[in-house]
Amino acid sequence: MANLDTSSLKALLDPAKTVTILFPGNPNYDHVAAGLGLKLVLEAGAKSVTVVCPDPMTVQFNRLVGVESVTDSLGSRQLLITFPGQTEYVDKVGYDLVGGELQLVITPKQDSPDLDHHKLQFIKGHGRTDIAILVGVNQLSDLGSLNEAAVQFLSDAKIIALSHQPPAQDYAHHVIYHPDASSVSELVVHLLDSLGIDPDADTATNLLSGIEDATDYFRSPRVNVNTFEIAAYLLRRGARRHQPVDANQLPPGAVPQAVPPIRKPLLSQKTPPPAAVAPVPSTALGFGTDSQQPEEPVEGQAKPAPSPDWYEPKIFQGSMLP
């Protein structure tokens, strides 16, 4: 495996207690697999890890371990209570549990005015983090709806960018990349190896799944000998492979089939003439035999003259006439 210079990174991670992993908007499978792999490793090292993505996780990520922990908010869960204009009156703050309910007890200083509870303000904390790892983020605008909140959230954090190439925006204190890596998940394996961390089975499963998806199951031209070595290493660490779904192996009707459209003839296309119909024998129509039918005159042959009485007037009489 390629050794990365992680001496400065290790100096940052060791004392850190809180780590936030951020994905860009609409992240690809490799980004999420790499980030969740890092999450599992850092949590095993007693770090408090939060994974944030501006867009919700879709069904394609469901097979990744830890995907249910991804949130779309950078806000802290802390509730801040401030005392505007009364801070100097506060002596101490404590709490009691009465009947299973939490009660905050604010004791004013002796000889100071009573606290006016109407002036208390309740503010949802913005939160903070020691380390922020941005996976696949080329520039902060990639964070989408979290862009504005991220500026304040990241102001006091040490930022690490993890990607194939250096980000277009210089927002990170440390950039970890490897242009020859087939995927970000492969880059994470290099990173863990340089830090001397062995992934567990769940972490190895996530990272191998990310490599397989990014390389089209090792068919990508980015695949090299290191990719296969890392895949073998992850399998030895207990990685479980996810086989691609073959539509031919599914039962009939499981995959909707496209109905071919009915093609109408263009106006410029001529309708072919109807097929010739064979003549029906006269016997089938009840007119006797074919030999009894009058013959058609031959072209060029004189037609026979009608009988003389044809031209004489005729008077018909019937029994009903007077």
Automatic annotation (TrEMBL):
Segments of this protein annotated with the region Disordered: 264-322
Name this protein carries in UniProt: DDH domain-containing protein
Membrane-traversing stretches: none
InterPro entries: DHH_sf, Oligoribo/pAp-PDE_c-di-AMP_PDE
SUPFAM superfamilies on file: DHH phosphoesterases
Organism placement in taxonomy: Bacteria, Candidatus Amesiibacteriota
Species per Swiss-Prot/TrEMBL record: Candidatus Amesbacteria bacterium RIFOXYB1_FULL_47_9
